[in-house]
Design brief:
Elements: H1 10-22, H2 27-39, H3 51-71, H4 73-89, H5 96-110
Helix pairs in contact: 3-4, 4-5
Length: about 120
């Protein structure tokens, strides 16, 4: 296995060591998945300090999606297809079958297929 040497400031190094230790990881083990994602052509999401914001956004959109699916399943499914296409264009989702399953899920959960 090759060794990669990076020059980083002391504060960043300290924070990496603390974050790795919190997960019972080495700094290498903490950073390896991020580097692999960055290096992969069409790589996926790179983890950042904005993970908490992303979590809130996902939860908000899930709630909105549930409300829309109960009002108009067709509108929800079109939105999910469009969102899936945007994610795939950005390399964040490469599984078309998963998007199809998610788009169909509200009908099964709510038992509603028509607009109110």
């Amino acid at each position: 296995m090759k060794t990669l040497t990076l020059r980083i400031d002391s504060d960043l190094h300290r924070r990496l060591v603390l974050r790795a230790a919190a997960g019972s990881l080495t700094v290498s083990a903490l950073l390896r998945p991020v580097i692999e994602d960055v290096a992969r052509p069409g790589g996926r999401y790179v983890y950042t300090g904005l993970d908490e914001l992303l979590t809130v956004a996902i939860q908000t959109f899930a709630l909105i999606g549930q409300d829309v699916s109960e009002r108009s399943l067709d509108c929800y499914q079109r939105g999910m297809r469009n969102a899936g296409a945007m994610l795939r264009d950005r390399g964040l989702d490469d599984d078309d079958s998963q998007a199809d399953a998610v788009a169909a899920a509200p009908a099964a959960v709510s038992g509603k297929g028509a607009a109110r």
